[in-house]
């Protein structure tokens, strides 16, 4: 595992795919705070709840001048279906490099980790959130996130920036 960037470090500027077919990277948001929330998989119970929670608060993030970006390794087409099915408002991006063996943003942040479920080991996304300041530095980090109340906690931290 690579060193894990932390508060005060620059957010790695790695491109991710968008459902619309383009790409997005953290530097695209320079000059404005950014919340990057990483989740394991579209359309699973915890990930759906987390995305719905951020969607419910998107207006408040917008009013505070804070951009949102949800990221998983799911392909852009799967993100499109997930967004449509749950009427999600927070933009999503795909860190497909995480699943391809290339170094994507998840590897750069040290959140592409070995997991263990029912005795089976596999690589997966650690549910994590990064609050990036307007200058591109990491202002706050939440690792191994518990979904309940998380979006509200992130909003409070973003408003305090």
Short note summarizing the structure:
A hairpin with a 2-residue loop joins strand 6 and strand 7. The strands form three sheets. A five-stranded mixed β-sheet has the order 5-4-3-8-9. The protein has a two-stranded antiparallel sheet with strand order 1-2.
In terms of topology, how is this protein built?
Layout: E1 16-17, E2 23-24, E3 34-38, H1 45-56, H2 58-63, E4 67-72, H3 76-86, E5 92-94, H4 97-100, H5 105-109, E6 112-117, E7 120-125, E8 128-132, E9 138-142, H6 150-159
Parallel strand pairs: 3-4, 4-5
Antiparallel strand pairs: 1-2, 3-8, 6-7, 8-9
In angstroms, what separates the terminal alpha carbons? 30 Å
Biggest sheet features: 5 strands, mixed
For this structure, the quaternary state is single chain
Unreliable parts? none
The total beta strand count reads 9
- The first-level CATH class name: Alpha Beta
Count of helical stretches = 6
CATH level 4 superfamily = Glutaredoxin
Number of separate domains: 1
3D shape: globular
Structural class: alpha/beta
Q: Fraction of residues in helices?
A: 25-40%
* Rg (C-alpha, Å): 15 Å
CATH fold category name:
Glutaredoxin
Strand order of the largest sheet: 5-4-3-8-9
Q: Averaging pLDDT over every residue, what do you get?
A: 94
Sequence of secondary-structure elements: EEEHHEHEHHEEEEH
- Identify the CATH architecture: 3-Layer(aba) Sandwich
How large a portion of the residues is in β-strands, by DSSP E?
A: 15-25%
């Amino acid at each position: 595992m690579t060193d894990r960037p932390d508060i005060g470090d620059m957010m790695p500027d790695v491109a991710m795919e968008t459902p619309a077919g383009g790409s997005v990277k953290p530097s695209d948001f320079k000059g404005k705070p950014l919340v990057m929330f990483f989740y394991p998989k579209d359309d699973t119970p915890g990930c759906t709840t987390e995305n719905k929670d951020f969607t419910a608060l998107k207006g408040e993030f917008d009013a505070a001048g804070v951009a949102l970006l949800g990221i998983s390794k799911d392909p852009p087409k799967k993100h499109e279906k997930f967004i449509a099915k749950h009427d999600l408002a927070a933009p999503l991006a795909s860190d497909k490099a995480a699943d391809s063996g290339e170094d994507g943003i998840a590897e750069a942040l040290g959140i592409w980790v070995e997991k263990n479920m029912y005795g089976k080991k596999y690589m997966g996304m650690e549910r994590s959130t990064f609050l990036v300041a307007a200058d591109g530095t990491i202002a706050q980090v939440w690792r191994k996130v518990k979904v309940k109340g998380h979006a509200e906690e992130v909003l409070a931290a973003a408003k305090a920036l």
